[in-house]
Amino acid sequence: MTEFEVAMPLAGGILIGIAAAMMLLFSGKIAGISGIFGGMLFRQGEERTWRSAFVAGLIAGGVLLYSINTEYFENSSGRGLVAVTIAGLLVGIGTRVGGGCTSGHGVCGIGRLSARSLAATVTFMVAGMAMVALVQPLYH
Amino acid sequence: MAKSNIAAFLCGLLFSIGLGISGMTQPHKVIGFLDVFGEWDLSLAFVMGGAVISYLLLQLWIQRRFSTPMLGEKFQFPSRKDLDRSLIFGALLFGLGWGLGGYCPGPAITSLGSVSVNALLFVVAMGMGMLLADRVISPILTHQALKN
Questions:
Q1: Is the separation of the CB atoms in B39 and A133 below 8 Å?
Q2: Cβ of residue B125 closer than 8 Å to a chain A Cβ
Q3: CB–CB of A17/A107 below 8 Å?
């Protein structure tokens, strides 16, 4: 195991939890980002508008973070364009078929003590660990 | 612009700040967190822990204190309780992609703000994957489930 941080990850996590809870408090919606992004692409009218606003907020936050410190987006993973494209396809198919991602299942679902979300989260964590175990030797 | 859209924008903004300061927008950190057999970096476990616990407590408070959302008609919670093949199969594929690229949807979309080519390719591919799932894969899974 390598050295790890606690304070900033914890603070960031709490902000994420607060943001997701605000979504519930204001609009009554679950802040599942794959679902919001997919809905923005494939739905129409009012269903599309609020999702587009949420996604715009995410990107605006990215611009803000990048203007404060580019290190927030440092990437020394070594992953190239082919790897991220295949990864994107898998994530798109998987989150749509499985009904959620790290935010919807991992944060909101587990936060509501949903057995479905717990099962999904354990599955995607184990699958992620297996994939890293498999491909990480290629990137050293 | 409706108030609920402004609220959604602000929630997205706050969410992405949380992702950024926690380290989730740095793919090598995500991969380090998943690298349990290698140089395991436990940092991101605290992101999940902090997010789950704060959401758990806040959603309990919201459900007790409010009968309807402040800007909406009703709370929309997922109602399904059963574990089915789609849930597990989908989560499996998602996990494989997460480990391969080091991005999950939120951090990838947030990283569009940093003009990252990797993130842009990932997000475009993710959209295409979602289309493929809706048009091809989910119908096949549903059809098979009906047959069994």
A1: no
A2: yes
A3: yes
Q: A116–B36: do the CB atoms touch at under 8 Å?
A: no
Q: A138 lies in a domain?
A: yes
Question: Could you give the CA distance from residue B29 to residue B22 in angstroms, rounded to a whole number?
Answer: 10
In a domain, A44, yes or no: no
* A4 touching chain B per CB within 8 A: yes
Q: Say if A104 falls within a structural domain.
A: yes
Query: How many domains are there within chain A?
Result: 1
The structure tokens 């935010």 sit at A103
Q: Which tokens go with B100?
A: 């391969």
Here the ipTM equals 0.97
Residue A15 lies in a domain: no
Do A41 and B127 lie within an 8 Å CB cutoff? yes
CA distances from A25 to A35, B52, B74 (A): 18, 16, 10
Instruction: Report how many Cβ contacts below 8 Å link chain A to chain B.
Output: 514
- From first to last of its 148 residues, chain B has per-residue pLDDT tens of 689 999 999 999 999 999 999 999 999 999 999 999 999 999 999 999 999 999 999 999 999 999 999 998 999 998 888 899 999 999 999 999 999 999 999 999 999 999 999 999 999 999 999 999 999 998 888 887 776 5
